[in-house]
């Protein structure tokens, strides 16, 4: 059952991921990306990682992509739809993807790490949200705080830059 | 000349919106509570309850023909209304009043008098122009029909709707 | 029981009887039981919600009429109660028109995307305690509360897509407004309920409701020792319990919870595009906004989607702040199926009360101006929600 779901959502994700590249209409591309993210969230759910799945939907599909779509709609990009596909570009792209796949498969098949099944995970003591919270605030407290400060600085910078009367 | 409007300085309660929102809610609640018990509802349940009683004296409804107190058709088929009617809703076919009739001296009366209610715009010019005060706009409204023919009021119908109008015109009376 | 099954078995051929027996065993096995009860729960809940949706539309029209001293639809059936059916028949029989320059695929996709998210939200709401030992939640997941936020954040796609695919200026403006409004209010929506998670210590909606059963509703945390049937029979003990529960911590925590209820409630209005925040569909300026170009079932789906969103929004408010299915003095479903049914009834009664407030507010307040809406969201609610989180943290840390 889990394997079937894995294949179903993986194929869905790869299919929509290809749609992002192949489709000409920018809005259609953005929506394919959203669908791809949703399939990724579903993959997380099949791994029982509900929190990551929900955050995936909330942050990328719900916030980031909505802003993307907003901008794309406002710009109303027509040039992309008119652009013609070049054979050489397609071949070059295909070659790179092929090389990458070959590299990946050869690494995975030869690496001793993946030749035997991994040991099963230990039963979690708390729910996954609590586990993530504990990890963040116990093991990685300082990096977490630093990232928080970084984001704050970035936010202030954006607000400053976007003000019209910058002297 | 430029004139600067001094905006009123809002108090904290006004800035918070909340008191205003709650007083607004109180008002609508009051209305709803009253209406729930059937009080203060201004809706008229139309087909059952008609406008008739509420129509003003000067209401201009369907044009009709009237007879006088002796039962004489007041219309003398002068066709002024037919001429003045802006949408040309009125069609009159005159006839001579035959010899020996009591009202021979009136000379003319309509043989046919049709008002096409599909064209009538209820302007009341026919009533204004009529020298005999024979045509009046009564209070009939909501005139409907399933075909164009049904929308035409013929003479009989017009007299039936108009009824009898007393007084006003006395020039054909015996004494004069 | 065996006698009975022997008696029944005479009516079937042996093969059929074996089949029925295995079917029964399959259905009563843990996984089979889970599947068919979940299916049954979803079907019934969906039925109730869709019925509620059509009658919310009817209620909206009747209540608005009463507020404006009118009568409202009262012709179809007794007091117009069959009006929703007449409306549905009318909408189904109309022509489903697609404008010439619209993007057909996305134009047709958009209404469905509007309808789906609010129904998905219903999946995690605990709409009752338990009935015959079955928990009355379709999916009790550990991150239920953020799931609700995530789903409501993707509900904007349908509206945006409708606005874009219509290829017409008013729907486009509606779509743009809707995007910016929803992004702005999602923040305060999400931040405003963080104090609840901090107080309860869980994101599971069932746990949050259970906390409220034991400690009192979030907006009225006054019976910390549990207000059960026993308390009603012994008022003196109940008073003592309440007096004992009136600790400084409880009373202080009440302040941030009320603030968060206020922010969440107002943001819910914005999130469901209800007046006073219905800018995406402002009839007077945008001729109906994003659904201007839709007719027939396309329009109906937008309309029903809006009301379903209202209902699931009311459900979320009920679950988070109004104690979910709980009522004071009423035990939960483990004490008998009657109590289970009463719990379900209590949940829907609270939803209906909230829906009435939604309608009442709509017919009282005028629409906000666009800049006022943004200012309210970003300058006021956002900051207030963040301060509220800190306030809760302070109280939780320093007041024992």
Q: Keyphrases for this structure?
A:
heterotrimer, A: 167 residues, 0% strand, B: 176 residues, two-stranded antiparallel sheet, 5 helices, 14% strand
Strand fraction of chain A = under 5%
* Count of alpha/pi helices of chain A: 7
Structural class of chain A: mainly alpha
Radius of gyration over C-alpha positions of chain A, nearest whole angstrom: 21 Å
Low-pLDDT residue intervals, each spanning 5 or more residues of chain B: none
What best-fitting shape of chain B do the alpha-carbon axes yield?
Answer: elongated
Using the alpha-carbon principal axes, give the shape of chain A. Answer: extended
CATH architecture of chain A: Up-down Bundle
Number of strands of chain A: 0
Count of DSSP-assigned helices of chain B: 5
Mean pLDDT value of chain A: 84
**Total number of strands of chain B:** 5
Taking the sheet with the most strands of chain A, its summary is: none
Describe this structure in words.
The complex is a heterotrimer of chains A (167), B (176) and C (400). In chain A, 78% of the residues lie in helices and 0% in strands. With 167 residues, chain A is mainly alpha-helical. Chain B has 176 residues and is an alpha+beta fold. In chain B, 23% of the residues lie in helices and 14% in strands. In chain B, the strands form two sheets. A three-stranded antiparallel beta sheet of chain B has the order 2-3-5. Chain B has a two-stranded antiparallel ribbon with strand order 1-4. Chain B is elongated. In chain C, strand 1 (130-131) and strand 2 form a beta hairpin. Chain C has helices at 2-9, 14-28, 30-67, 83-93, 104-121, 144-154, 156-165, 169-192, 194-200, 205-215, 229-233, 235-245, 248-271, 283-286, 296-321, 337-362, 370-398, and strands spanning 130-131, 134-135. Chain C has 400 residues and is mostly helical. The longest helix of chain C has 38 residues, at 30-67. The model of chain C has no long low-confidence stretch (mean pLDDT 82). Chain C is 70% helix and 1% strand. Chains in contact: A-C, B-C. The A-C interface holds A 27-28, 31, 34, 38, 50-51, 54-55, 57-58, 61-63, 66-67, 69-70, 73-74, 127-129 and C 106, 141-143, 146-147, 149-151, 153-154, 156-157, 160-161, 163-164, 172, 175-176, 179-180, 182-183, 186, 202-204.
């Amino acid at each position: 059952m889990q394997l079937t779901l894995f294949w179903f959502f993986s194929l869905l994700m790869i299919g929509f991921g290809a749609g992002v590249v192949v489709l000409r209409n920018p809005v259609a591309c953005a929506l394919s990306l959203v669908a791809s993210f949703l399939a990724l969230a579903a993959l997380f759910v099949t791994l029982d990682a509900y929190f990551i799945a929900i955050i995936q939907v909330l942050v990328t599909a719900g916030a980031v992509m909505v802003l993307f779509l907003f901008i794309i709609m406002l710009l109303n990009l027509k040039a992309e739809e008119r652009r013609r596909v070049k054979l050489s570009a397609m071949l070059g792209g295909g070659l790179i993807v092929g090389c990458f796949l070959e590299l990946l498969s050869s690494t995975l098949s030869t690496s001793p790490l993946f030749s035997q099944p991994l040991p099963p995970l230990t039963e979690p003591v708390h729910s996954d949200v609590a586990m993530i919270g504990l990890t963040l605030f116990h093991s990685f407290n300082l990096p977490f705080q630093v990232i928080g400060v970084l984001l704050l600085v970035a936010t202030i910078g954006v607000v400053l830059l976007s003000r019209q009367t910058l002297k | 000349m430029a004139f600067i409007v001094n905006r009123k300085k809002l108090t904290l309660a006004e800035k918070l919106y909340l008191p205003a929102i709650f007083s607004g809610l109180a008002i609508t609640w009051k209305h709803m509570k009253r209406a729930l018990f059937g009080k203060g509802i201004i809706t008229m349940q139309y087909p059952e309850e008609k406008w008739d009683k509420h129509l003003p004296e000067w209401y201009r409804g369907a044009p009709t023909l009237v007879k006088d107190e002796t039962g004489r058709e007041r219309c003398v088929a002068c066709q002024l209304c037919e001429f003045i009617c802006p949408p040309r809703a009125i069609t009159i076919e005159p006839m001579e009043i035959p010899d020996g009739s009591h009202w021979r001296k009136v000379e003319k009366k309509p043989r046919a008098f049709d008002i096409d209610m599909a064209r009538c715009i209820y302007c009341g010019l026919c009533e204004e122009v009529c020298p005999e005060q024979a045509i009046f706009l009564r209070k009939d409204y909501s005139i409907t029909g399933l075909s164009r023919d049904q929308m035409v009021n013929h003479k009989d119908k017009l007299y039936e709707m108009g009824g009898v109008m007393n007084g006003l015109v006395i020039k054909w009376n015996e004494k004069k | 029981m065996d006698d009975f099954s022997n008696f029944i078995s005479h009516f079937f051929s042996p093969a059929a009887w074996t089949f029925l027996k295995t079917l029964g065993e399959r259905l009563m096995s843990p996984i089979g039981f889970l599947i068919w009860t979940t299916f049954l729960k979803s079907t019934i809940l969906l039925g109730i919600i869709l019925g509620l949706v059509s009658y919310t539309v009817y209620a909206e029209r009747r209540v608005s009429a009463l507020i404006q001293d009118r009568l409202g639809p009262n012709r179809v059936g007794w007091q117009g109660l069959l009006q929703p059916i007449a409306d549905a028949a009318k909408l189904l029989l109309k022509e489903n028109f697609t404008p010439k320059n619209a993007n057909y695929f996305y134009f047709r996709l958009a209404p469905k995307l509007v309808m789906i998210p609010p129904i998905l939200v219903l999946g995690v709401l605990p709409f009752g305690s338990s009935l015959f030992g079955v928990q009355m939640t379709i999916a009790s997941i550990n991150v239920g509360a953020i799931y609700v936020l995530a789903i409501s954040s993707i509900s904007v796609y349908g509206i945006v897509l409708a606005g874009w695919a219509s290829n017409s200026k008013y729907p486009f403006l509606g779509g743009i407004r809707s995007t910016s409004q929803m992004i702005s209010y999602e923040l305060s929506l999400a931040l405003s309920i963080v104090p609840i998670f901090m107080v309860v210590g869980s994101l599971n909606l069932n746990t949050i409701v259970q906390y409220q059963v034991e400690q009192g509703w979030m907006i009225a945390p006054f019976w910390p020792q549990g207000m059960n049937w026993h308390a009603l029979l012994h008022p003196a003990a109940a008073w003592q319990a309440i007096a004992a529960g009136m600790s400084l911590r409880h009373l202080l925590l009440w302040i941030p919870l009320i603030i968060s209820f206020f922010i969440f409630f107002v943001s819910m209005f914005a999130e469901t595009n209800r007046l006073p925040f219905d800018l995406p569909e402002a009839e007077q300026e945008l001729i109906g906004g994003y659904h201007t170009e839709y007719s027939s079932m396309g329009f109906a789906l937008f309309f029903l989607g809006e009301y379903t969103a209202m209902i699931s929004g009311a459900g979320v408010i009920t679950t988070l702040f109004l104690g979910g299915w709980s009522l004071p003095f009423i035990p939960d479903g483990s004490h008998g199926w009657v109590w289970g049914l009463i719990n379900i009834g209590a949940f829907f009664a609270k939803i209906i009360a909230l829906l009435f407030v939604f309608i009442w507010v709509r017919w009282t307040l005028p629409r906000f101006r666009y800049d006022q809406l943004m200012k309210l969201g970003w300058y006021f609610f956002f900051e207030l929600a963040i301060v509220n989180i800190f306030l809760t943290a302070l109280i939780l840390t320093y007041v024992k």
